[in-house]
Sequence to fold (238 residues):
Amino acid sequence: MAGVLSNQFEKKLSLKTKIVGEDRIKKAKEKNEDVAILSMELPGEKSNFQCSLGDLCLQGDARSLPLGTKKMEYKTRQWHEKCFCCCVCKVPIGTQSFIPREQEIYCAKCYEEKFATRCIKCNKVITSGGVTYKNEPWHRECFTCTNCSKSLAGERFTSREDKPYCAECFGELFAKRCFACNKPITGIGGTKFISFEDRHWHNDCFFCAMCRTSLVGRGFITDQDDIICPECAKQKLL
Fold:
């Protein structure tokens, strides 16, 4: 269980139980405030009481509220004091923070344990900014290159068989290699390259073997393993 609450839940944890006087209770009810109110049934009161736990009431009788028994009220619902508890761990909320969800009441820790976003790699709660990859959440520190374990958060990367790789590892492991410089041609970042038969070149490496003029966008002639421009080919034949 995470020791720090996720940012996405912090705003939800503003709901507190309040122990207040009769006038304050009346005012809160009139305004339908988003607070839970702990009060006591007083002599002479004839309020209708129905514990929201119904047949699961921990007092044994959902309609009974003996004098001197404290009750909890939240919105339009009521509970015995000890019945106002987390639906998961069953610990009474008391004056602690709580989170309502549909018809259930959760303590902060159980709510996070059940509903918080968890890292697909380590399964721990993501307490601050994470990374989404393939529609799955990761901690920034867990989103790493499959080969070298370098963090990929905010970095260029590519994938193979749904596994992420940094540009360097992907190039070394899987990319085609330039026939001239033997370095990988990754295509990452818009890198342009030229292919001819079973050979490949970076644009910057595709030049005439004799005059070193770039052959990008120009005609060329192969001379065994070399490529040469038409002008140099003519000179060679003379």
Summary: The radius of gyration is 35 Å. The chain is about 15% helix and 25% strand.
